[in-house]
Design a protein that fits this description.
mainly alpha, about 85% helix
C-alpha cells in the first residue's frame, strides 16, 4: 500500500506497463506478419526481404545515433526550461535528418558492389523507413514519462500495416506493396509524433548553431557505438547467411531467432524494471539473486523450446520451415546467455558506474565475431551451421567478458 501511494513508484509502474505493452505488441505484430508473409511470399522471397532488412537496420541505427537511448536524459534534466527543451528537440531532429540524407549517399556508394547492386532498388525503398526513425520522438516521451501517447501512436501505425497487409498482399508479386505499406506506416508514426510535440507540448523548432549540434552529436557517439555493435551478431549473421548460403536459410534463421527473442523479453523487462533500484541502492545481494534467477529460468526456457522446436517452427513458418527445428534447438542456447547478458551488463556494470567496461565488452565480442568470420572465409568454411555456432559463441564471449569485468571490479563482493 505504501508503494501504491508513492507517486514515483506509480509513474515507474505505469511506464513499465507501457514499455512492456510496446515490447509485446511489437513482437506480436512481427509474429503475425511472419506467419502470414512466409506463406504468401515463400521462404526465398521472405528471406530476401529479411536479408535486405538486415542491411537497412544498420542504417536505421546510424540515423538514430544513440539518441533513442541517451536523449531522454536531456528532457529529464531540463523539464522546467522550455527554451532548452526546444533547443534539444530541434538539434536532435536536425542531426537525425542530416544522418538520414547521408545514409542515401552511403547506400549509393555501396550500390556498385555485390551483393547490394542486385537488390539496390529494394534497399533504397526500405531506407525510407528512416523517416519514421527521424520524426518519431520515443526519447521525448520517455523523458517526460508519458509513454501512453507513444504506445497509442505505435499501435495505430502497426494496426495499419497488419490490416492493409491482409487486404492488399496476396501473392509473391506484392512484395513492393508490402514494403510501401511499411514505409507509409512509419511516416504515419513520425507525423503523429511530430504533431504531438507541437500540439501537446508546444515545442518550437528552430535552426540551432553548429557548435550546439556538435555537442549533442558528440555526447551520443558512445551510445551509438554500443547500439551499433549489438546489431552485429544477429543482423550480421542474417547478412552473411544471405550471401553465402541461401534465402531459404535466412527465413529459417530469422524465424528461429524470433522465437528465441520472444523468450528473452521477460529478462529484458526485468532488467529495465530493476535497473533504477540497483543504481540507487547498489544492492549486491539483489544482483546475485537476479543472476541466479535469470540463469535458472533461462535454462528452463531453453528446455521448453528445445522440446517443442518442431511444433513451434511449423506453427510460425509452416511445413517448409519444420526442417529448421534443429536450428531452433541450437539457437535456444542463446536464451540463458542473453538473460545473463542483460543482468551483467545493465544491472551490474552500468548500475555500478562501469560504463567503459560495458562498452568494452561489446567491442571485444564484436571484434572477435569479425575475426572468426574472416578465419572462416580464409578457410572456405562459411556454412549455415558454422554461422549459427559463431552467433552463439559471440554471446558466450559477451557473457564471459562482462562476468570477468564484474568479478574484477568486485561488483559481486558482499
Amino acid at each position: 500500500m505504501n508503494l501504491i501511494k508513492n507517486k514515483d513508484y506509480l509513474i515507474i509502474l505505469k511506464n513499465f506497463s507501457f514499455l512492456s505493452l510496446l515490447k509485446f505488441f511489437n513482437i506480436g505484430f512481427k509474429f503475425v506478419l511472419v506467419a502470414y508473409l512466409i506463406r504468401v511470399f515463400g521462404t526465398k522471397i521472405y528471406g530476401l526481404l529479411t536479408w535486405a532488412d538486415s542491411v537497412i537496420q544498420f542504417f536505421l541505427i546510424f540515423i538514430n545515433f544513440g539518441f533513442n537511448v541517451y536523449a531522454a536524459k536531456y528532457i529529464v534534466d531540463n523539464r522546467g526550461d522550455i527554451q532548452k527543451i526546444n533547443e534539444v528537440v530541434s538539434s536532435i531532429y536536425i542531426i537525425k535528418f542530416l544522418l538520414f540524407l547521408f545514409s542515401f549517399i552511403v547506400l549509393f556508394g555501396i550500390s556498385f558492389f555485390d551483393p547490394f547492386s542486385d537488390n539496390i532498388h529494394l534497399l533504397y525503398l526500405l531506407l525510407l523507413l528512416g523517416l519514421g526513425e527521424v520524426f518519431f520522438p520515443i526519447w521525448f516521451y520517455q523523458g517526460v514519462e508519458k509513454l501512453k501517447t507513444a504506445t497509442l501512436i505505435i499501435f495505430i501505425s502497426r494496426l495499419f500495416v497488419i490490416t492493409c497487409t491482409f487486404i492488399f498482399v496476396k501473392s509473391q508479386n506484392d512484395l513492393l506493396v508490402y514494403v510501401w505499406l511499411l514505409i507509409i506506416s512509419n511516416i504515419i508514426m513520425g507525423f503523429l509524433g511530430l504533431r504531438s510535440l507541437k500540439v501537446d507540448y508546444n515545442i518550437q523548432f528552430y535552426l540551432v548553431s553548429i557548435n550546439k549540434m556538435y555537442q549533442y552529436f558528440k555526447a551520443a557517439i558512445m551510445f551509438f557505438l554500443g547500439r551499433f555493435l549489438s546489431l552485429v551478431f544477429n543482423y550480421g549473421t542474417i547478412f552473411l547467411i544471405g550471401i553465402y548460403t541461401s534465402m531459404d536459410d535466412v527465413s529459417g534463421f530469422d524465424t528461429a531467432s524470433k522465437i528465441v527473442f520472444i523468450c528473452v523479453i521477460p529478462f529484458e523487462m526485468i532488467q529495465q524494471a530493476v535497473f533504477p533500484t540497483i543504481s540507487r541502492t547498489l544492492d549486491k545481494k539483489l544482483l546475485v539473486k537476479l543472476i541466479a534467477l535469470s540463469l535458472f529460468f533461462g535454462l528452463i526456457m531453453y528446455s521448453i523450446i528445445n522440446y517443442f522446436s518442431e511444433e513451434l517452427m511449423g506453427f510460425l513458418g509452416g511445413d517448409e520451415l519444420v526442417k529448421y527445428a534443429s536450428t531452433l534447438k541450437t539457437l535456444a542456447l542463446l536464451i540463458p546467455l542473453i538473460s545473463l547478458t542483460y543482468i551483467l551488463g545493465t544491472c551490474a556494470l552500468v548500475a555500478f558506474g562501469f560504463f567503459k567496461q560495458y562498452n568494452n565488452s561489446l567491442i571485444i565480442s564484436s571484434i572477435l565475431y569479425i575475426v572468426f568470420v574472416l578465419i572462416l572465409y580464409v578457410l572456405d568454411k562459411i556454412t549455415f551451421m558454422n554461422l549459427i555456432y559463431l552467433r552463439i559463441l559471440s554471446d558466450f564471449v559477451l557473457v564471459f567478458t562482462r562476468g570477468f569485468y564484474v568479478v574484477k571490479n568486485k561488483v559481486l563482493s558482499l
